[in-house]
Amino acid sequence: MAERDTEVADVEGRRAASGKVSVVALTALGIGSMIGGGIFGLPQQMAGAAAPGPLIIGWLITGAGMLMLAFVYQRLAINRPDIDAGVYGYARAGFGNLVGFSSAWGYWLSAWIGNVGYLVLLMASLGVFLPGFGNGNTALAIGIASVVMWMYHVLILRGIREAAIINAIVTVGKVLPLVVFVLIGLFAFKLDIFTHDFWGAGVGTGPGAVIAQVKNMMLVTVWVFIGVEGASVFSERARTRADVGKATILGFLSVLALLLAVNILSYGIVPRSELAGLGDPSLAGVLEAAVGPWGAKFIALGLIISLVGALLSWFLMLAEIVRVPAQEGLMPSFLGRENAKAVPVNALWLTMGLVQLFLVWTYFNASTYTRLIHLASALILLPYLLSALFQVLVAVRDRSRGRRFDLAVGVLGSAYGLWLLYVAGLVYLLYTTIFYLVGLPFYIWARREQEAKVFSTAEWGLVALFAAMSVYAVYGLATGALSL
Predict the structure, then answer these.
(1) Contact 194, 52 (CB under 8 A)
(2) Which of 14-18, 56-60, 90-94, 257-261 has the lowest mean pLDDT?
(3) Looking at the predicted structure, is the pLDDT value of residue 26 above 50?
(4) CA 125 to chain centre
């Protein structure tokens, strides 16, 4: 009997090990989730916000700030290997159940709304080759996008690990067109085009004008780095927690290098005034200016491959970020149920259903990709800030030799998180509270399932704050006093 138990345990151990995700696949998940449509639209979006000088300052701030956030997830993966699901787990461990739930809820909302934006952009990219797709929200485009979305659903139901391996292969395919652009851009770059109106004299002079330009570009940079925490979301499925940290830093540095190269080279190929007027994907217009008409189609094809991979990465993370809180009693238990392939099927069905509804909504409301990504970016700011603040708490409680470095990472990451809240502006923050408030019935449902106290005294205060801000946002929307 003992031998049989040992044999069964060995089989289960091998099965568990075979289901783990490697450091290469984790890195690909991070790169795949960060490199989606954002980098392909970066030249036009940045040109509309900042001249080359403020652009460089903004990238220095973004690079340093996002590096600190990457280190936050790297250090927490090593120092707190007992916590699963990244942004959710850290917020709950540091600030309690309701805050943990809110972090997971905001992250989940941000991710699936962002996926709607990706699907719209994917259809717009197909419009370069096929008629009838328009800006990605025609009836034909919405129909094809829906088919594509449900194909992802079927693929992910076959297993997390299998989907992650496919994602790693697709990630290679999406990076290659960007590398080709960089190589061509190095030869097409002209210094006189890059340095013309270096500080943006057309929008004013002095430090105030520079700071305004830097601020304008910051929310876009958040969007292109969303996914830096991708490996930590899958921490429970990683082979080791050290792999999570390695994948986070490797993915971030790779994407940062590509973003800097693409953005700066674009400013030296097409004058800023023309860059700001390019249509999506604006990188196609830049390469067309450098090499001719074939460049636009080459980039459009690269964008299609990129979006296919990014959508897979994000659909994988969407189900995962709901599964863990559901299994820990902070979301309804039905969202934590898994199939034989360890896929949280109910969480996946709910997510896909909402994406489908929002796709239809874009048809009737003509929502643009840019508006969707700004909302998605604003929703993810709170989860990022909470992770950095938790890093501060962990470092303060720690007495090891690495405490000073961990504390510096947490403090700088928190400062960057607060700066991003300021950059997002009051209007976007007010609107996000509506989305957070809508999630509270799910939390109440879960707590009653557990027969646990729903809100503590402090949590009632947080609920009141969400409610007050939401009422003001709805009032502003109804009266026209606030607009996005």
Answers:
(1) yes
(2) 14-18
(3) yes
(4) 20
176: which 2 tokens? 């290659």
Alpha helices in 199-292 (DSSP H): 207-225, 230-233, 241-267, 272-275, 282-291
Question: pTM score, two decimals?
Answer: 0.81
Task: Using alpha carbons, list the distances in angstroms from residue 324 to 29, 149, 234, 351.
Answer: 18, 23, 10, 15
Q: How far apart are the C-alpha atoms of 203 and 113, rounded to whole Å?
A: 33
Query: What are 328's two structure tokens?
Result: 């820990």
Using alpha carbons, select from 285, 306, 281, 304 the residue that is nearest to residue 295: 285
CA 479, CA 319: separation in Å to the nearest integer?
A: 37
Residues 219/377, Cβ–Cβ less than 8 Å: yes
What is the 8-class DSSP label of residue 425? H
| Among 244, 227, 248, residue whose Cα is nearest residue 235 | 244
Nearest to 225 by CA among 315, 110, 116: 110
Residue 21 φ/ψ, nearest 5 degrees: -100, 130
Please list, in sequence order, all residues whose beta carbon lies within 8 angstroms of the beta carbon of residue 167, skipping any fewer than 6 positions away. 25, 28, 29, 32, 309, 312, 313, 316
* CB distance 107 to 317 below 8 Å: no
Round to whole Å and give the CA distance between 241 and 236: 8
Percent of residues, the chain, with pLDDT higher than 90: 24
| Confidence (pLDDT) at 362 | 79
Query: What is the Cα–Cα distance from 232 to 104, expressed in whole angstroms?
Result: 13
Both structure tokens of 18: 């075979």
pLDDT in tens, 390-417: 999 999 987 766 688 899 999 999 998 8
**Distance between CA atoms of 257 and 9, rounded to whole angstroms?**
45
What is d(CA 149, CA 189) in angstroms, rounded to the nearest whole number? Answer: 39
| DSSP one-letter string for 442-469 | HHHHHHHHTT-----HHHHHHHHHHHHH
State how far the Cα of 135 lies from the Cα of 122, in Å rounded to an integer. 10
- Residues 204, 217: contact at Cβ < 8 Å? no
CA distances from 76 to 29, 90, 94, 409 (A): 18, 8, 12, 11
